[in-house]
Queue: 3 jobs
Job 1
Amino acid sequence: MILRQGKEQGFDLEQISAKIVNNSQKCLKRDGDEKLYSFSRLRWILTKDLSIKEINPDWGFTLNSDWITKDGKTLQELINNEG
């Protein structure tokens, strides 16, 4: 998954992406990092560390806008396609 706002602002995809590795709340894993993150926690970390603009780090994420796949699908679209 890729943080959409980071992609739009030209950040390197390695800096703003993570893989979904399970179905728990902490399901995201970044390359080179053994920790697992929730979508909202990783969004907060990336927003603060990279100074990503036009995103409030203290607001939760939404299924329709913040996290996307490499081909641009949102989390909501992924959920809808599973059913």
Job 2
Amino acid sequence: MQKISGKAVNRLKLYLVFWIFLSIVFSTVIYMQVRKETALSAEIESLTAQVKSASAKSQVLQTNIDLKTSAKSIEDYAHKHLGLVYPNEIIIYDDNYQGDK
């Protein structure tokens, strides 16, 4: 069996320490990247939920705008509140009626 000299043992120890150091550094870097990716994934999910919520709210608001600016809704409002009279419409007033007061 061959005997290993003191310099060879020191060199092997140095290589071993070097590889352990590299392993620790790379493991730490990979761990930090995984944590960063996990945090970014959670942020993406949160932002996606906010976008969906804002989109739904925007759609509701657009529907309300469309309803309030349609010719039919404007005509109905004018007829009920502003006294619009349709052609050939007969209006009967009752001086004793107190329903709107």
Job 3
Amino acid sequence: MTLFSPLRIALAVAALLSIVSPAQAYLDPGTGSMIISAVIGVAAALGLGLRMFWYRVVGLFRGTNGNSRPGEAESAPPAKE
């Protein structure tokens, strides 16, 4: 067994993390709303990412290129003179 084996490193990290010390921290009432807004922001970001991914998957099956955005026209209509 070597000096820096993965098992020894894991045991050392587990031993250091198991030492408990008092935090003596104060959480004010605004902390709850901050956590809620962070959760809502993460949910919105995940929803947007999934939506963008979904449009790419649907575009693959429809045979369209991935350069156009949803709701955009493929080509501009002819200009009226």
